[in-house]
Amino acid sequence: MSRQIVLLRGVNIGARNRIAMAQLRELLTDAGFGDVRTYVQSGNVVLSSDASPERVARKCERLIAEHLGLEIEIVARTRAELAEVVRFNPLERVAVNPKLYQVSFLAAEPDSGITDKLAAAKVEPEQFVVDRREIYAWHPDGVARSKLWATLAGRGLGVTATARNWTTVTKLLAIADE
Hints:
Order of helices and strands: EHEEHEHEHEEHEH
Largest sheet: 4 strands, antiparallel
Number of domains: 2
CATH architecture of the largest domain: 2-Layer Sandwich
Structural class: alpha+beta
Strand content: 25-35%
CATH topology of the largest domain: Alpha-Beta Plaits
Distance between the termini: 14 Å
Helix content: 25-40%
Number of helices: 6
Radius of gyration: 16 Å
């Protein structure tokens, strides 16, 4: 079985889509996934499975809907895919605070026009790089009033997406390697 990273979109933010990580670990373990681990409360799971990441994501979505009554979108990556995200790190020279450096993980490659849409939302000194199914974004002034962040966090990308800060990205890779 290979290690995979399962990223739930929009859980445990505010009062909606609340999922206890212990309950999620138990649900996924009972469903046959191996060595299920979670990181923080925002829907980060590392597990083992022989299925493709796409199949793992769909199965997790079904399990959560059937057992917890929540419609949660999920994006999954293999350990090797996540390692490539960390290796690539295109904003390494400018993104000096890992909490303000975000990676948006997309379920599929976005339409070609997405770069123009993101560029229109970006305000200096923000930066971003689109690389296949990931969008790296540096928000040095935070995300609270960032139009770029609002565009990345919303549904305007045309594909399911969920973002994690660089600290979380690298920690998930470390957990996958344990």
